[in-house]
UniProtKB/TrEMBL annotation:
SUPFAM superfamilies linked to this entry: Flavoproteins
Source taxonomy: Bacteria, Pseudomonadati, Pseudomonadota, Gammaproteobacteria, Enterobacterales
Domain of life: Bacteria
Residue intervals of the Flavodoxin-like domain: 4-143
Top enzyme category: oxidoreductase
Gene3D superfamilies linked: 3.40.50.360
Enzyme Commission number(s): 1.-.-.-
Protein name: MioC family flavoprotein
Needed co-factor(s): FMN
GO molecular function, one term: oxidoreductase activity
Keywords: Electron transport, Flavoprotein, FMN, Oxidoreductase, Transport
Pfam families cross-referenced by the UniProt entry: Flavodoxin_1
């Protein structure tokens, strides 16, 4: 069945745990997954399905472990037209730049031709002590959209 590469960007682990939880749910649903925390661009297949889970730091900035991937894609502008992706942001509404990192990633991937599947989920940690919960509900619908690809 479909291979899904989960890509997490995290500083203290929240987004990383969410990515691992979603991988578990997708595995249970019969997908095969691999989860990469802060991968380099060279580690990624430029085709297939990516599921990106990223928190936001600084003022709308990417976590340090995902910044190199962003920078490489931004500089090289690879053809990502064979990539479909899902996007999950973890952030806090107390910042004006709520979930700024996933928005930047979403914009960049689209500019490189990748196609987003489903809505961009933004989890506000002020509403959700356990960000895995809304992410799990979201992935329940998201996985069904993959059947139409
Ligand atoms: C110094 C600092 C800056 C932050 N800046 C933002 C921000 O600009 N936008 C946002 O939505 N959340 C921001 N957050 C909230 C984090 O994204 C949130 O705490 C998240 O759960 C961290 O997840 P992580 O452990 O995976 O990095 C910030 C948190 C800290 C500590």
């Amino acid at each position: 069945m479909t291979d899904i590469t989960l890509i997490s960007g995290s500083t203290l682990g929240s987004a990383e745990y969410v990515a691992e939880h979603l991988a578990e749910k997708l595995d249970e649903a019969g997908f095969s997954t691999q989860t990469l925390h802060g991968p380099q661009f060279e580690e990624l297949e430029t085709s297939g399905i990516w599921l990106i889970v990223s928190s936001t730091h600084g003022a709308g900035d990417l976590p340090d472990n995902l910044q190199p991937l962003f920078d490489t894609i931004n500089e090289q502008r690879p053809d990502l037209s064979a990539v479909h992706y899902g996007a999950v942001g973890i952030g806090s509404r107390e910042y004006d730049t709520f979930c700024g990192a996933i928005e930047k990633l979403d914009t960049l991937l689209t500019e490189c031709g990748a196609k987003r599947v489903g809505s961009l989920l933004k989890v506000n940690i002020l509403d959700h002590d356990i960000p895995e919960d809304p992410a799990e509900i979201w992935v329940g619908s998201w996985k069904n959209l993959l059947q139409d690809l």
